[in-house]
Amino acid sequence: MPEKASSLVELLSELIRIDTTNPPGNETRAAKLLQEELEGRGVEYKLLESAPNRGSIIAWAESKEPGPSLLLLSHLDVVPANPDEWSVDPFSGVIKDGFVWGRGALDDKLSVAVMLKVFLDFVEFKRFKGRLIYGATADEEMGGRMGVGWLIEQYPELLKADYVLNEGGGFEVPHKRSVFLVQTAEKGVYWFKLKFKGKPGHASMPKSGDNVLPRLAEAVDKISRKGTPVDLKVHTKTFIQKLLESRGVPSPLRKLFSSKLFIPLVLKLAGDAEPVIDAMVRNTVTPTVARAGDKVNVIPSMGELNVDCRLLPGYEEGWVVDYVSKVVSGMDYEIEFIHRDPATESPLETPLYKAIETTVVSEVAGSIVSPYMSTGGTDSRFFRRAYGSAAYGFIPLRADLPIREMMRLAHGIDERVSLKNIEFCYKLTSRVLEAFYATV
Ligand SMILES: [Zn+2]
C-alpha cells in the first residue's frame, strides 16, 4: 500500500508550507515529503544532496515496451517572499477564494505536485513506454548548479532523457484565439566587464591626471545608443506568425510580417509586448553597472563598466568581443567575461512538441500553440547541452486572472493558483503524455 497519497491540492499546499527560499534553499524537507508519496508505489527513487539540506529527488520506472526516455522536471526551491507585502502568509499554502496561495504556488511547486501525480498515474496504469523519470530538484532559482548541474555531473545516467517537460512556458496569452506558449529556446547569458585605465591627479588641477569618467560615460552612451541587428530564429519567426494568426491576420501577410524587413513595424504595433519581442529578435548588450572614483577631490584613474549581454542561438563570446571593439573603437579598454552561458534550443518537429500542440488545440477550442524563446534561463539548458534532449517549457495554465497580474505573480506578491487551473494543468499534462505515447 502507498505510504501516503495526498490529493493534488493538499500536496501543493503542503509543499508551499515547507519554506525552500533560495538562498539558502533547504530543499531536503520538501524532497522527503515527495519521498513519502513515492514510497510503496512500485517506483525506484533516490534522494540526493549536493550539500547538507540541498536535496533533490529523482524517481523512475522502466516499461517492458521499448520507447524513449521522458523526464518530468520541476524545482523545489523558491525565491524569497516578504510577508509584509503579502495579503496572506507566503508560506501558509492557504486555500481561499478558489486559489492556493503562497510562494511557489506557480513557480514551481505546482509543477512539482502535478508532475508527481502524473508520473505515478502513468506508472501505476502502465501507460508509458521506455523510461519515465520524475525529477524535483534543488537550486533552480540560483542557477541550478547545486541541483540539476550537480546531478548531471555526479550521476550522468540518472537524468539522461530524450525528452524533458519542464517549466518556462505553457501559459495562455488570451485573445480572440488564445495562444499557449511553449518555451523551446533560451537566450545565452554573457556578462562582461569593460575596464578603463587613466592616471590619478588632484581634482583641483584637472590636467594633473587622466580622468577615466568621461571615457566611461562615452562607452555607456555608445553601447546604449547602438542597436544590434535583427536575426530571426525559427522560434521567433514562428512565434510572430502564430501571434498574427491569433489576431486574424491572413496567411500571406503573416509570412510577410515575420520577415526581417517588417520587424520594425511589428515592434511598433506590439504595444505592451514590444520589450519582450524586441529582445527575441536580436542580441542585446545593456550596460548596467558603472564604477569609477570614490573621492570628490581625486581624479579617478580606474573605471569599470558591467554589461549584461544576451545572445541568440548561434552566437558566442567572439561576437561580443567583435561587437564591442566596433562600438567603442579607438578607446583603450580591457574586456573580461564574468559569466558565459550559451543559448540553447530544441527542435519544433518532435513527437513531444506535436503532442503538446494537438492536446492544447483539442482541449481549448480555437486555441493556437506557439514556440517562444525566453530571454532568461531555466534548467532545460542543462539537458539540451548535456544530452541534446528535446526540452520544452510547458506547464499549461489558463489566464484566469488579468494577464498582467498573472505575469507578476511568479516571483511576485500574492503568488497563487486557482483550483481550476490546478485541475487544468493536471488534465492537460496527462493528455500530453497520452498523445506522446500514442505516437512514439
Ligand atoms: Zn521556476
Can you describe what's shown?
The chain has 440 residues and is of the alpha+beta class. Helices cover 34% and strands 24% of the residues. It contains 14 helices and 19 strands. The strands form 5 sheets. Strands 1-2-6-3-7-18 form a 6-stranded mixed β-sheet, with helices on both faces. The radius of gyration is 24 Å and the shape is globular. Zinc ion (ZN) binds at residues 75, 107-108, 140, 167.
Blueprint (SSEs and pairs):
Blueprint: H1 8-17, H2 28-38, E1 44-49, E2 55-62, E3 69-75, E4 95-96, E5 99-101, H3 109-124, E6 131-137, H4 148-154, E7 163-166, E8 172-173, E9 179-186, E10 188-197, E11 201-202, H5 213-225, H6 234-246, H7 251-257, H8 263-269, H9 274-280, E12 284-292, E13 298-299, E14 302-311, H10 317-327, E15 334-341, E16 344-345, H11 351-363, E17 368-374, H12 380-387, E18 390-393, H13 403-409, E19 416-418, H14 419-439
Parallel strand pairs: 3-6, 3-7, 7-18, 9-17
Antiparallel strand pairs: 1-2, 2-6, 4-5, 5-19, 8-9, 9-16, 10-14, 10-15, 11-13, 12-14
The structure holds zinc ion.
Strands side by side in the biggest sheet: 1-2-6-3-7-18
Per CATH, which architecture of the largest domain?
Answer: 3-Layer(aba) Sandwich
Based on the structure, what is the oligomeric state of the protein chains? single chain
Question: Could you say which small molecules are bound to this protein?
Answer: zinc ion
The tally of strands reads 19
Radius of gyration: 24 Å
Q: What's the pLDDT, averaged over the residues?
A: 96
Helix and strand composition category: alpha+beta
Percent in strands: 15-25%
The CATH class designation of the largest domain is: Alpha Beta
Number of domains: 2
The low-confidence runs, each spanning 5 or more residues with pLDDT under 50, are none
